[in-house]
Amino acid sequence: MNTGFAKSVLYVCVLALGIFLPIIFPAYIGQMTLLWLMVIFALTWDILGGQMGYNSLGNIFFFGVGMYAAAMIQVSMYYDLAEYTSPAGGGIYEFSFSQYFTGMTVGFTVAALVSVVFAIILGRLVFGLRGPYFAIGTLAIATVAGELVSTWELVGGGGGLSLPNFPGEPSGSRTLFYSMMFLLAIATFSFLKWLYSTRFGLAINAIRDDEEKAEGMGIRTLQHKTVAWSISAFFLGIAGAIFGNFNNFIEPLEVAFPTTTFGIFMVLMVLLGGKGTLWGPVIGAVLFHIIKELTWTYLLGWQWVALGVLIVITVVYFQQGIMGWLMEKYPHWFGIRVEGAKQRLSDMMDEAAK
Hints:
The chain is 73% helix and 1% strand. With 354 residues, it is an all-alpha fold.
């Protein structure tokens, strides 16, 4: 089968599933929203971890920053934020249809921009680190952010912050935020598909293979690393804003900056699917989410054991990930041809005939 045609069929199937599954199974729209969030997590982590070779453990920082930035804008545009978050209660806060969607539009925009600004600033600090030092440094940023926000009374501290209520039926809210997360996942995938085909994609791959040689070839490594992290931050900031509104309540340690759950899931999904590939993170995210939902439903109390077993299996038997294993076993599926294979076979047959 022609690989171009197969890819087109695959894209159409993914779009069809994204559109029709919530219509067919409306009771599971929450789980499907989380599925697309997992796809975004995996795709954005792979920009650094897979394509560039910098294993960040702190990408969840941008998710939380976007979530809080959007929430603060959405509330403060119409009410005093300090009164809104006061433990004593400042009254009943209602948002009209116009206020809700205007605040959300501005909030999502600010969430993306603020996340990018933080990526640029922090990139100057952490990209001087390599290997495990970089991973630990980024993890520290996310952990410290969660603790600091827990003490910030203006946004509710550890008690959390409620977001404006959707001005309509609850089912309309679920459908809206599902659609937003689905479209963001498609936009992220499409943008990265284009990005990896450009010279920028070649440059970050060169950094992954040998950063010193890349610098010697004239590649501005710090600039490329900062831009790559900013792209990841941009999409994660919007995802955080969408998820905060979908959840309707945000809390610093378990919702906005969950380093021990979402922060680790990002890495595991990419390892499962295959680092440095376009479809690997998507496949890993889908499989991981299905396994997670099944274990959380039917193996409650043992779910972390099941995830631990999944990690061991992935590391021991699928070090290159599912996509890497498939590309190695069935290269013709991906349009990969082994040059000279037929000629070598012919030579061997001629030698045997002699």
